Amino acid sequence: MESVKSQSYDVHINELAEASLNQHVANRDYSKIFVLVDENTKTHCLPKFEKIFQHPIDAILEIQSGEENKHIHTCLQLWEDLSNLGGDRKSLLLNLGGGVLTDMGGFVASTFKRGIDFINIPTTLLSMVDASIGGKTGVDLGSLKNQIGVINQPEMVLIFPEFLKTLDQRQVISGYAEMLKHGLIQDKEYWEDLTEKGGFTDASCIQRSIAIKNKVVLQDPTEKGLRKILNFGHTLGHAIESYCLDNPDKKTLLHGEAIAAGMVLEGYLSHELRGLPKLSLDEIKKGFSKYFDKVDFTTDDIEAILQLLKYDKKNSHGNVNFVLLQSIGEAVTDVKIPEELFHKAFAYYKE
């Protein structure tokens, strides 16, 4: 299957991924090779990876999985581990895991010794179609998502859909939310294919999502304009995710579950402010309801979620900026929302 060419690196799939990795390492004189895993990928993915990788591994670094561990204290431990194990500027870090691990591993590599090479090997659907492209690295600040980080590109990204067989269905469906988003913001036909036919774990669908995100990132690598459309659903979605993560009385949501709710809510705002047809809005809500359970929000929950919007990293000059849809497949950026519409959006979501 054809590779996707991004800014300074390629995203390789299946056999091309295996060959490209081994050739790359053979052509570089790396002083040390480290593999970063969590307890899940250590058990389910590392043995498969070791059969693919033809070079010696100097050390396996392990972190605990989960968004609650995506913070600077984990990075401190990894920096210390790299230093104690003799890591230097000619070392390579291979990040074998989901979006939390590749985000954090990329950040650790980008800042250790002022930057060492890293390669991302995403093992979840979410990380394959989202975190694999764009070079965003970083960690959370408390429960606030992705507040600390840098944009820095990996040497390459390697996609092995085989790893998806190690996931439970909830994790797979979480990644599906980002694929649906790609259709909503850029490709109506892709949205229709996904909602009508499914097949979202097929390598061809994964490649199509990667290509859509890559096309956007190539035009705006540092998120000055067009790249903002990738945040559709994420302004309210991140606030929902942070609130549920920080509130012991609420069920912790996976990223895709929170973003799915965010896209329905921001779809309603799109209908009110940008003329998204009501039929399209209802189609979006129906599309997500096929795969994602409705989240129960009380009045107090909604107020707390809206308070978290002020911490969104896309804010500018004190304004909360939203990405909305004019139609399915066409997004607009930097829209400001009248406060009373938020409550109407939640009311529509709860219907």
UniProtKB/TrEMBL annotation:
The keyword Lyase applies. Residues 61-173 form the 3-dehydroquinate synthase N-terminal domain. It is an enzyme of class 4 (lyase). Keywords: Cobalt, Lyase, Metal-binding, NAD, Nucleotide-binding, Zinc. Its EC number is 4.2.3.4. CDD domains: DHQS. Residues 175-315 form the 3-dehydroquinate synthase C-terminal domain. Its cofactor is Co(2+); NAD(+). Pfam families: DHQ_synthase, DHQS_C. GO terms for molecular function: 3-dehydroquinate synthase activity. Catalyzes the conversion of 3-deoxy-D-arabino-heptulosonate 7-phosphate (DAHP) to dehydroquinate (DHQ). This is 3-dehydroquinate synthase. The gene is aroB.
